[in-house]
Amino acid sequence: MSVIGDYFIILWGFLLIGLMAIGGYFMFRKFLKQLPKEDGKSDMDWEKHYIDKTRHMWGEEEKNFLEELVSPVPELFRDVARQKIASKIGEVAIEKGSKTITQETIIEGYIIATPKRDHKFLRKKLKQKNIDVSPYEPFFKMSRENYAENWESNYQKQKNTK
């Protein structure tokens, strides 16, 4: 066999191992999301719960606005991102006692559900739509890590200071 053939086989082996590792990583993440927490429900169970509980609260305009916000997510991951963000929006709406999902609720839920690196796109999109971001600055200042852990208590503190 030639040297080029040997290198090709080695490269092919590394490529396959790399692709399997990437696939395994995403499968493992999904597996972890399905493990029950202390309350007996998994993260995915809670996501489905909030989506089902608030499905009737969404108007067509709000659905389209959410679609605009998740548009930069690669199509392969868009459904997962949409579900996670929509469930957090539903959770915020329930916490507020809202009867419908509003644009304000969508923006708050989007900020809470997404990592800080995605907020740049949201700011840009809100500026394009002439929406003032100043009411949402406290949410932007909290990183996702700080917010996701105790987001409800942080949200209540924020609400009480207004």
Please characterize this protein's 3D structure.
The chain crosses the membrane at residues 6-28. This is DUF2621 family protein. Keywords: Membrane, Transmembrane, Transmembrane helix. This protein is an all-alpha fold and 162 residues long. It has two domains: 1-33; 38-161, no CATH class. Helices cover 73% and strands 0% of the residues. It has helices at 3-33, 43-54, 60-70, 75-96, 103-113, 119-128, 137-141, 144-149, 151-161. Helix 2 (43-54) packs across helix 4 and helix 4 (75-96) crosses helix 5 (103-113). It is elongated. The termini are far apart. The mean pLDDT is 84.
Could you provide a short overview of the structure?
This is DUF2621 family protein. With 162 residues, the chain is an all-alpha fold. It contains nine helices and no strands.
Give short descriptive properties of this protein.
9 helices; 162 residues; mainly alpha
Spell out the blueprint of helices and strands.
Elements: H1 3-33, H2 43-54, H3 60-70, H4 75-96, H5 103-113, H6 119-128, H7 137-141, H8 144-149, H9 151-161
Helix pairs in contact: 2-4, 4-5
Rounded radius of gyration (Å): 20 Å
The residue-averaged pLDDT reads 84
Instruction: List low-confidence stretches.
Output: none
N-to-C SSE string, H for helix and E for strand: HHHHHHHHH
Approximate strand percentage: under 5%
Return the domain count.
Answer: 2
Structural class: mainly alpha
Overall 3D shape? elongated
- Largest sheet features: none
Helix content: over 70%
